[in-house]
Amino acid sequence: VLDLLKGLVPVLLACWAGVSLSMSGFIGLAAVCGHIFSCFMGFKGGKAVATTIGVFLGLAPVQLLIAAALCVAAIAISGFVSLGSLTLATAIPLLLLLSGKYSLLPVAIIIMFLVYWKHSANISRLAQGTENPWRKPKAASGEDAHSQDDETTE
Predict the structure, then answer these.
(1) Residue 35's CB: how many other CB atoms inside 10 A?
(2) pLDDT tens for each residue of 116-132
(3) Are 35 and 115 in contact (CB under 8 A)?
């Protein structure tokens, strides 16, 4: 929640102060960069997804909600949170383009590349088939843990 607020509060304050939408986007980009390169953590920080959600919740809420729905769908189908995060980061610029919010495209594309960069290890693991899913896989061939235990005790 705090990471989301890191992105939301600055862009809402900028909009409230009358700053243009495109400049508010760059303020949001600064918040994302501050999250990724936190001076409080030795210039190492998070992967920027929650802060990105906050930025676009304030600047393009409809596009963000659609991107979030696609993110949740990707996680539900694949079981990989990283794939959902990458889906969200990819969907935002596409949805901004389709909806005509062109002034936010440069920021959205930069943030997309930052999210991809921060997820490079996850992308490698996804490609190799070694990424850990958020949920445990079901037992093979429909057997549950009890039937496997029964076989070893006989």
Answers:
(1) 24
(2) 999 999 999 999 998 98
(3) no
